[in-house]
């Protein structure tokens, strides 16, 4: 999506940095929108609202939090550890899903398996005994592991995400039952976050998330506790995953002129991409590999594949970069007498909308519950869901409490899954998820503020995209 937007949590009058967008073009396009966002944040005062909610005495919320802790220590921590020690990579998380759904059934959820045609995706639903004429509270759970040279491993702590959500749900379910509060809880089991195509985009397109009033997830960023500014997008999550498949004709090496060398076409294309970098804005990030380039050196390769991640801070210029690379691929094919097919099945990632109301409340709660390594400065706007499309449809937030001494995607982070540090951070995540959903469920003023902010920012996002197209027009010709 579009990422840079801005604003600051101007809640109590804290001054925002001059710019939160990455590029001057974005800033120019965003200027009219920024002014309106500033006014919106000043009116909603999300920091002040968060401080009021967190500081108030609330016996029911305290009971919810106590039950969340009991659920975490009474089984969910062990479940997190078990998933961590039985890693399964994307689309292969059968053992994890089977275990998680069995526990969810025992907790009172009904389970729909294989949603959106994905074998390891599921939706767990619990309806309040008082009825469902109330908010639908959504929680996201991931469980796929990373691929590594030493074997699969949970170096991004996805093992904890679903048990954390389950512990949060347990505390809320008991409250809603005892207090006869209407509503529904849905836990979305989302596979394959670390590999394409993006599962959550597939689920979003299939309408799996429709009906949720709020969405929440947890995902530590290694060594810091942080939140983002309200706005649109974040760095580097507007991504097109594209494979360029070159096809030629085989021949013996000794008569190579009878063939059409797909590897030469792929190398020519790969080199051409480097040669056009000076014609692209410096914020462009293009990373590629050649996973296929022939089988034997004495046979002219008749198939070669170049696999690229194409990233840019906003989706309008990203489309321009993508088109430039397509032209380069077609040129390489023409020059070598080969053909090229463009495979976009890897998927497209877009950024979403981040809300000051939810980001500030999350940040206030994680600090209250004892999170460490606090980064006091809000970061760039970041849709709570990295596949972003959902974050444009449903207000939500990601809980980011420091949960490791090491950076993400490392073997050292895996070790922290089972440490006191990791366990304590995951409990903070669970309590924070429950507390935010409790406030959304029970505080009408807060719920209205979230809905108002989201509705207003959704409309402003469309204006922002139109603004980008206008300022890029002369440069990219559309």
Features:
13 helices, 45% helix, six-stranded mixed beta sheet, 2 domains, Aminopeptidase, alpha/beta, Alpha-Beta Plaits, four-stranded antiparallel beta sheet, disordered N terminus, 478 residues
Contiguous low-pLDDT stretches (5 residues minimum) are: 1-20
Total beta strands: 12
Structural class, by secondary structure, is: alpha/beta
Q: Tell me the radius of gyration.
A: 24 Å
Strand content: 15-25%
Give the distance, in angstroms, between the N- and C-terminal Cα atoms. Answer: 18 Å
Question: Helix segment count?
Answer: 13
Mean pLDDT: 91
Instruction: Please outline the major beta sheet.
Output: 6 strands, mixed
- CATH architecture of the largest domain, by name, is 3-Layer(aba) Sandwich
Question: Order of SSEs, N→C?
Answer: HHHHEEEHEHEEEHEEHEEHHEHHH
- How much helix is in the residues? 40-55%
CATH class of the largest domain: Alpha Beta
**Widest β-sheet, arrangement of strands:** 1-2-4-3-5-12
Q: What does the overall shape look like?
A: globular
Q: CATH H-level name of the largest domain... which superfamily?
A: Zn peptidases
């Amino acid at each position: 999506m579009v990422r840079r937007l801005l604003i600051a949590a101007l809640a109590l009058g804290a001054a925002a940095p001059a710019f939160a967008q990455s590029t001057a073009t974005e800033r120019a396009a965003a200027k009219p929108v920024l002014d309106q966002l500033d006014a919106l944040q000043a009116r909603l005062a999300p920091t002040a609202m968060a401080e009021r909610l967190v500081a108030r005495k609330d016996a029911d919320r305290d009971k919810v939090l106590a039950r969340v802790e009991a659920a975490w220590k009474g089984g969910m921590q062990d479940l997190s550890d078990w998933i961590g020690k039985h890693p399964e990579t994307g689309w292969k998380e059968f053992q994890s899903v089977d275990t998680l759904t069995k526990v969810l059934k025992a907790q009172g959820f009904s389970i729909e398996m294989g949603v959106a045609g994905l074998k390891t995706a599921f939706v767990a639903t619990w309806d309040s005994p008082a009825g469902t004429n109330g908010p639908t509270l959504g929680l996201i759970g991931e469980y796929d592991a990373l691929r590594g040279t030493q074997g699969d491993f949970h170096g991004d702590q996805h093992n904890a995400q679903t048990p954390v959500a389950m512990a949060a749900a347990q505390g809320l379910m008991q409250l809603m039952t005892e207090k006869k509060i209407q509503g529904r809880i849905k836990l979305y089991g989302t596979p394959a976050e670390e590999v394409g195509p993006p599962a959550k985009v597939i689920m979003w397109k299939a309408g799996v998330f429709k009906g949720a009033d709020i969405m929440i997830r947890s995902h530590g960023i290694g060594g810091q506790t942080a939140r983002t500014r309200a706005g649109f997008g974040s760095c580097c999550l507007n991504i097109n995953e594209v494979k360029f498949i070159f096809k030629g004709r085989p021949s013996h090496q000794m008569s190579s002129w009878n063939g059409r060398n797909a590897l030469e076409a792929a190398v020519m294309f790969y080199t051409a991409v480097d040669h056009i970098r000076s014609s692209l804005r410096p914020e462009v990030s293009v990373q590629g590999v050649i996973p296929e380039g022939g089988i034997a050196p004495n046979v002219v390769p008749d198939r070669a594949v170049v696999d690229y991640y194409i990233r840019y801070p906003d989706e309008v210029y990203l489309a321009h970069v993508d088109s430039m690379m397509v032209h380069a691929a077609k040129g390489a094919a023409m020059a070598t007498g080969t053909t090229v097919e463009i495979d976009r099945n890897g998927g497209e990632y877009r950024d979403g909308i981040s809300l000051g109301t939810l980001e500030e409340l999350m940040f206030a709660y994680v600090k209250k519950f004892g999170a460490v390594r606090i980064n006091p400065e809000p970061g760039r706007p970041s849709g709570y869901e990295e596949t972003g499309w959902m974050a444009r449809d449903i207000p939500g937030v990601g809980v980011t409490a420091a949960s490791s001494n090491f950076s993400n995607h490392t073997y050292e982070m895996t070790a922290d899954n089972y440490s006191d540090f990791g366990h304590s951070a995951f409990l903070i995540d669970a309590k924070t998820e429950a507390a935010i959903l409790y406030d959304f469920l029970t505080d009408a003023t807060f719920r209205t503020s979230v809905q108002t902010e989201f509705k207003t920012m959704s409309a402003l996002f469309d204006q922002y995209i139109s603004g980008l197209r206008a300022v890029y027009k002369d440069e990219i010709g559309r």
